[in-house]
Amino acid sequence: MMRAWLLPTLFVLCGAFLATVRAFNGSPGAAAALLAVFVLLAGVNSPLIFPKSVGAEEAQRRSAVDARPVVFWRPGCVYCLRLRIRLGRSARRLHWVDIWRDPAGAAVVRAANDGNETVPTVVVAGRPHTNPDPRWVREQLSRSA
């Protein structure tokens, strides 16, 4: 859990430090803008932007019932963020597994990617797909509905 918040925390701390330096140098407006940018970066790289994660076993069980894809992701992953943003509201219909919070999820990803924790890995009908195109994922989701 702590690892998921490491990058956002670093963004906030660095932004606060740089904003403080700017403020002491007589640029309070630039300091506020700089801090806002770093807080935005922290928010985008935090687990908050993603739908609530479930465990790998629970996600696979749910997927067997409703045939929706399972997305294995981790905070700070640019490709996971791209997938999440491009899916828009439909991302909430997928089953999301944070591999940093769930060791079983990390094991599924390693098994699918020759021992590497390459994310996003999307499992559709039991078959893993590494870093698929968001349009393809949206199509798979519409087929399951």
TrEMBL record:
| Entry keyword Transport | no
User: InterPro entries from the xrefs?
Assistant: Glutaredoxin, Thioredoxin-like_sf
Q: Residues in domain Glutaredoxin?
A: 70-127
**Keyword annotations:** Membrane, Transmembrane, Transmembrane helix
Transmembrane region positions? 33-51
Record flagged with keyword Transmembrane helix = yes
Q: Which Pfam families match?
A: Glutaredoxin (PF00462)
The molecule here is called Glutaredoxin domain-containing protein
Which organism does this sequence originate in? Streptomyces peucetius
